[in-house]
Structures are given as structure tokens and as C-alpha cells.
Amino acid sequence: MSERMTKGSVIAQYLPERVTPVGETIAPVFAPSNIALCKYWGKRDVELNLPINSSLSISLAHLGTQTRLSVSDEDAVWLNGEKVAAQDKFARKVIAFIDLFRGPQGSPVKVETDNNIPTAAGLASSASGFAALMLAIDGFYGLKLDPQCLSAFARMGSGSASRSLYTGFVEWQMGVREDGMDSIALPLDSHWDALRIGLVKVSVAEKAVDSRSGMNRTVETAHLYQSWPLQAAADLERLHQAIADKNFTQLGETAEQNALSMHATMIAAWPPLLYWQPGSVAAMHRIWQARAEGVEVYFTMDAGPNLKLLFTAEAEAAVKHYFPDMEVIAPFG
Ligand code: ADP
Ligand code: DP6
């Protein structure tokens, strides 16, 4: 039987013998957050974050993470201008990821990272966070990794980060290789200028159960999860077709059903997982009411209480009537 692969053993094969900083610091690098229209939910390998299904996302343009690495006397992580305690899970995860490249004996670094989306609230900070960190590592150590490696390695930080190396529509192909080097994201060659995303923030507090734990709990305990790979495969097909045909109805219906199917598997986990709050359910009803009144708007949701609305530019004013406080993003604008 082959030995179980680790992140370190896979990454090491693509690194030079010595990994050292090329200078004192680098210019900050940015990665956009992304929202999946067909979700990544469940892993076939929890060490390498290899998914059970392929997924498809849309990037959130200017919303995401900016990260810079510098030479330092000690390892230090700063988030949104504040130093994070070294023993905090956030700092430990960031440093452990850097260790995969510089090695545990590597020289200390200062990490300065800024999220212009709420952190750990179901607005995909882990996606932009690890994608920006991957790009910063590549620049700081002069690795010059190709886009496939950047996507595969960012995935080892957080699965959804594999998709945050690109803008627009992005597909993360699940791949079949044991080392996961074919489990990478690729941008779709499609623009949809009129597409809009509305962020409806119900709560930006840090959620009690992170996406990773929620996903693992669902796979391990929910019988309903067995139907998920079939749902995801069918939805991926429908989304590709909708994007090719610029069929907004098909895009919106598929994304909304995909999100609700994912949440159904979580509700069927044990202990049950319900990320929705009363405000999330109220927003869903408002969306369904808007649709009944002829306004074409759909939603998707990740592992958190907030909603992301999908609509087109021509419906923006009408959607704002129902959600006056939403933040509107033009992903191709
Ligand atoms: P979210 O819904 O925001 O993605 P998750 O619980 O899935 O919430 O992920 C939050 C985790 O993502 C954080 O605990 C941290 O490990 C990681 N993360 C968020 N922002 C950054 C960042 N700027 N740099 C590195 N890692 C980050
Ligand atoms: C519901 O990428 O945060 O947002 O790979 O364990 O870090 P890890 O999980 P993460 O999970 C994202 C789950 C999701 C769906 C999606 O973005 O596709």
C-alpha cells in the first residue's frame, strides 16, 4: 500500500532546494473572494483538501484579501491592522502554511493581511485569505510557481482558495490523482457584464462552527449526504449551459437549489447544523416574494447566515426596493 501523502511531501517536489526570501519585503498582493454557484461540500482527502465534487464560482471583484510578507525578528501575524496572538488558531494556521514552503527552521516572517470582507462569517474569507497568502509566499520567496501549482497549493490551505486565484467564473475540477495535482481551478472564458451579486449581511459575527468542521461533520453523519455528489454533478452541467447561453433564469434557479441542497445535508447531520438565523429565513421569504411579484432575483448561501443575491443590472433598482441595504458587486465590471 502506498504511503499517505502529506501537504509537505507534495509541495516539496515543486520547490527549489533552498527557499529563502528574495528581499526584505514584497508589495502587497490581492486575491478576490469567491462565491460558489455549485458548492464544494465534502472531501475525499482531508489532508490535501481534495473534494468529492467539482465546483464552480464567481469572484467578488474588489472584495477579498491583501497580504504582504516581510523579514522579521519573530513570526508575527497582523490581521486588519491588529496583531494576532501567536497561539490563536488564525495565526497558527497562517504560520503552518508558510512552514510548508520555508520549512519549520526557515527565517521568521511578518505577515500583514487585510480582509475587506468580514472574517469567518460565511463570506469566504478563507478563500481569498489563503489565495493571497499563496501569492505572497510565491513573491516573497521568488518561487515563480505556475498557475496550476498556485491553485493546487492554495487549495491545501483552504479548498475554496484554489478558485480565488482568478476573477470571473472559475471551475475547480475535482481531479483523480492521489497527490491532487490535477485538483485545480481554471477560469472559464466567459464574461457576463450584466450579472450582479448583492451581499445581504444578516450577521458578520464569527460563526460557531467553521466551514471545515461543518463539512466533515456532514460527510461523517448525514445519510442525506449520499445524494449530494449527484446533485452537484447535475448542477455543474446546468450552470455551464446557463453561462454559455446567458440564461439567467437557469443560472439563478440552479445556484439557489444547489445552496439549499447543501444546507439540507447539514441540517441532516448530527449534531444538526443550521447556519441560518431568523434574519436569513426572513430574507429568503423576501426573495421568494420578489420573484412572485415578477422581480427575478435568486440567492446562494455558504456556511454562514448571510445571503448572496443573484440578479442582472436591469433588475438592480427593483431588487434594492426589497433589500435597500445590500452591497452590490459587478463581478465583471
Ligand atoms: P469564511 O466563511 O469567512 O471563509 P471559514 O470559517 O471558512 O469562514 O474560514 C475562516 C478562516 O479562514 C480563518 O479562521 C482563517 O484560518 C482563514 N482566513 C481568513 N482570512 C484570512 C487571511 N486574510 N489570511 C489567512 N487566512 C485567513
Ligand atoms: C460552503 O474552502 O472554507 O463555502 O477546504 O476545509 O478550508 P476547507 O473549506 P472551505 O469550504 C468552503 C465551503 C463553502 C462552499 C464553497 O465555497 O464551495
Automatic annotation (TrEMBL):
Annotated EC: 4.1.1.33
Pfam assignment, any one: MDD_C
SUPFAM superfamilies according to UniProt: GHMP Kinase, C-terminal domain, Ribosomal protein S5 domain 2-like
Designated name of the protein: diphosphomevalonate decarboxylase
Coiled-coil positions: none
Source taxonomy: Bacteria, Pseudomonadati, Pseudomonadota, Gammaproteobacteria, Oceanospirillales
Membership in a protein family: Belongs to the diphosphomevalonate decarboxylase family.
One Gene Ontology MF term: diphosphomevalonate decarboxylase activity
Organism encoding this protein: Amphritea opalescens
Keywords annotated in UniProt: ATP-binding, Lipid biosynthesis, Lipid metabolism, Lyase, Nucleotide-binding
A cellular component annotation (GO) from this entry: cytosol
InterPro entries from the UniProt entry: GHMP_kinase_C_sf (IPR036554), Mev_decarb (IPR005935), Mev_diP_decarb (IPR029765), MVD-like_N (IPR053859), Mvd1_C (IPR041431), Ribosomal_Su5_D2-typ_SF (IPR020568), Ribsml_uS5_D2-typ_fold_subgr (IPR014721)
UniProt keyword annotation of Transferase present: no
Domain Diphosphomevalonate decarboxylase-like N-terminal stretches: 31-185
Domain Mvd1 C-terminal: 202-322
Keyword Cell wall biogenesis/degradation: no
Domain of life of the organism encoding this protein: Bacteria
